[in-house]
Structure formats: structure tokens, C-alpha cells
Amino acid sequence: xxxxxxxxxxxxxxxxxxxxxxxxxxxxxxxxxxxxxxxxxxxxxxxxxxxxxxxxxxxxxxxxxxxxxxxxxxxxxxxxxxxxxxxxxxxxxxxxxxxxxxxxxxxxxxxxxxxxxxxxxxxxxxxxxxxxxxxxxxxxxxxxxxxxxxxxxxxxxxxxxxxxxxxxxxxxxxxxxxxxxxxxxxxxxxxxxxxxxxxxxxxxxxxxxxxxxxxxxxxxxxxxxxxxxxxxxxxxxxxxxxxxxxxxxxxxxxxxxxxxxxxxxxxxxxxxxxxxxxxxxxxxxxxxxxxxxxx
Length: 295
Prior knowledge:
By secondary structure, the chain is of the alpha+beta class. It folds into two domains: 19-158, no CATH class; 169-293. The protein is built from twelve helices and six strands.
């Protein structure tokens, strides 16, 4: 590790922050204790050995919220890097404004979708009364106002902990040991996060090289490639400045090389043999040069 990289890690709290995301939603699946007991009695088994689970409303009623939650989480992961076991993720201060703007928009989308769900709640219950028939129980259905407490969208921002922030009444030896542990943990977390960035870069560029080499214009259906072959690199380039935690100049250079790869669109790569070959060669060169940064 170079001295510059070491200093970048030590100063990470000045240039990065930790973010967290919590999305909680109503779970329509509920155990029916009455039916569970009836089934156990019919088969002469202990009631604790099984259970009957039912969906109190049609599963399709939750599709919009479920898909939106998955989409928001996926984008949250794309814009950040893994950090700690508690689910916290990290991004640079450079990318925070873009991230926070996106997160506020995502929060607004979530609130709107929840409001729509709650507005339709009574109709979902009426539909369930018909579909469940004898399995329908009024006690399974809270009011729309009570149901609102089942939903949560919360995102948090906090500083990256550093050893110098640790202050407590202990002996100098104990304090020093704890600070050393914090510093070591910080260094390990930064290195793991940067491996994730390098891995993302390698994967999209390697995919481009492989797909371009496999493409046969005389039989394009044999090994086709989608427009995402180019857009996946462009999308990554949009967030990479937010992920370069150590301000690694080598990463900046690779980003510039990757931008050259996406100056042509996917259709041009399909139609033009020379451009396709040139782009594949440059993608392979990037991968070869990048290998020294990926262990």
C-alpha cells in the first residue's frame, strides 16, 4: 500500500460518509391458528408441528410496493459501497448531493405508493372476503390508519468513525489498543469497499470484451448482445466518482478509458466490424491493465 493510499484511508472521514436505508412494509401472509389446529386434529399431530399460512389479501395488491422497494434498494446499492455488517454503506462527499436528491425522490415515490395502497385497502378487504370465503376473519384486518404504521421509509447519514473520535476514561494502554483496532477495521473496510468498485469496473468491461468477441454479424442470433452492453458501463461511470473513496488516480484514468468505450452505441458495434474490433481490443487492454489493482 502506498503512502498516498494510506493517507487517503486515514482521512476517509473527511471525504466520505455512511448511509443506511430501511424500508418496511405490510406482510399479507398470516398464520391461521384455527385452521392450523383443525388440520392437526384431523391428522392426530401436535399443533406445534405445522401451521397453515394464508395471504389475507391478494398478493397482486402488494406488487407495486414490493417491486418499488426492490428497485429502490437495488439503486441504493448501486450508488454506494458495502461497509459494515450492520448494513451501513459508504459513498464520497462528492456523490452525496446526487445521492440525497435521488433518495428524496425515491422517498416521495414510496410515500405516494403507500398512500395509494391505503386508499385501496377497503377494496382489497372486500376482494379477500370473497376469495378466502370461510378462511376470512375480520380480526386479520386492521383499519387503514392502523395499517399505515406497518410501513416505513427511513434513510440515515452519519460520519465514518475514526480512531481519534474515541474518548473514554480508560488507561492509556487500553485506549491505544482500541484506537488501533478502529484504525485496522477502518483500513480493512476501505480496502474491501475499493475491491467492490474495481470488481464492478472489471465486470462491465470484461462483459463488453467477451460479447463483442463472440458476436458474429453473419449469425447475430447465435451470440447477440443488448444495448445494455454499453449502457451498463455508462451507468457505472455516472456513480464511480461517488465510489472512489481513496481518490485513486489510477481509477480516474480507467474511468477516462471506459468513457472512450461508450462513445459508440450498441447498434454501431453490431454494424461496424472495424469499430467492434477496435472496441474489443481496447476493452481487453483495460482488463489487462486493471488486473494489478484486483487481487
